[in-house]
Amino acid sequence: MSNNSEGKIKVEAGKRYSWCNCGKSNKYPLCDGSHRELEGIQP
Predict the structure, then answer these.
(1) Is residue 2 part of a domain?
(2) CA–CA distance from 33 to each of 5, 11, 13, 22, 30 (Å)?
(3) Interval 11-30: pLDDT, tens
(4) What does the alpha-carbon distance between residue 28 and residue 1 come to, in Å, rounded to a whole number?
(5) Is residue 32 part of a domain?
(6) Tag placement on the chain: N or C end, fewer CB within 10 Å?
(7) Alpha-carbon distance 5 to 19, whole Å?
């Protein structure tokens, strides 16, 4: 899991984002779909 020390992310108006809950995303704290490779983990 990456650590964003500033606690900030850049987002674009009008674009949808999903928050990562599994901790496996390469775009953490945003979801990149990595949870699909894990059994029993849902977004």
Answers:
(1) no
(2) 23, 18, 22, 10, 9
(3) 999 999 999 988 889 998 99
(4) 7
(5) yes
(6) N
(7) 17
